[in-house]
Amino acid sequence: MISIKTVSEDETRNVGTMLGSILRKGDVVGLEGELGVGKTVLVKGMAAALGVKEYVTSPTFVILNEYKGRLPVYHFDVYRVPGPGDVYDIGFDEYIYSDGIVIVEWADLIRDILPAEIIWIKIERSCRKRNIAGKTSNMAQNRLFGEAGGVGGVRVLHMSFTGERYKEYENYLVSKIGKEVTRKEVDKE
Predict the structure, then answer these.
(1) Phi and psi dihedrals of 28, rounded to 5?
(2) Of the candidates 177, 175, 140, which has an alpha carbon nearest to the alpha carbon of residue 157?
(3) pLDDT tens-digit profile of 23-65?
(4) pLDDT tens-place string over residues 173-182
(5) What tens digit of pLDDT does each residue of 133-187 get?
(6) Hey, where are the domains in the chain?
(7) What is the reported pLDDT for 85?
(8) H-run or E-run covering 151
(9) In this predicted structure, what is the pLDDT of residue 183?
(10) Which of 74, 130, 181, 189 is the most buried (most CB within 10 A)?
(11) Phi, psi of 97 (to 5 degrees)
(12) CA angle at 41 for the pair 34 and 175, rounded to the nearest 5°
């Protein structure tokens, strides 16, 4: 597992762009985090890297948005789905095993029906804020992402890559982002 701190929407979107640039057909990304933490912002970055030209929004009330890019992107938001089995009513299993990319917001609500091989991203808010000059204590991070304007809380993106197909993804992101990434070996059961 790796953890990446971001201090703005732009930085969160940039992480999504880096991940999106390496996604391949059949990949599944599960997103977890409280309301407003930046799940859709991360999806916007992934979609942009996949060549999606449309405006990306959270499908909170429609459950699924489909986007055309170099690969189809199937963006689910299951927050309002009554139970895990109810997503099958909209053909969820057909999307999961398609040639597109499946991204699921609130994936923790349907964890039991998601594939074993998955990229899992839990986004949390950190209590550390940017100071008035717009700096954080992690100067290397600012060099990586550029000085982003605005005041906002820090987000921590905890990313787990489960399955053989995703081992190289984790290594790529660590090499791309560098030492700003905290890497933790997770016990494999």
Answers:
(1) -125, 130
(2) 177
(3) 999 999 999 999 999 999 999 999 999 999 999 999 988 999 9
(4) 888 886 556 6
(5) 344 444 344 434 444 333 357 899 999 999 988 989 988 888 888 655 666 654 4
(6) 2-183
(7) 85
(8) none
(9) 60
(10) 74
(11) -105, 30
(12) 105
CATH topology for 2-183 is Rossmann fold (3.40.50)
- Please, what is the end-to-end C-alpha distance for the chain in angstroms? 14
- Tokens 């969160």 sit on residue: 12
> Hunting for tokens 């489960």 — which residue is that?
162
Tokens representing 59 are: 């499908």
Give the span between the Cα atoms of 189 and 187, in whole angstroms: 6
The residue with tokens 């499946």 is 102
Which structure tokens are listed for 74?
């199937």
Q: How many CB atoms are closer than 10 A to CB 135?
A: 12
Q: How far apart are CA 160 and CA 166, in angstroms?
A: 9
Closest to 11 in 3D by CA, of 161, 155, 182: 155
Asked whether the CA dihedral 187, 77, 83, 71 is positive or negative, the reply is negative
Distance CA 75, CA 66 (A): 6
Contact (CB, 8 A) for 50 and 140? no
Name the token pair of 171: 């290594």
The token pair at 136 is 């954080």
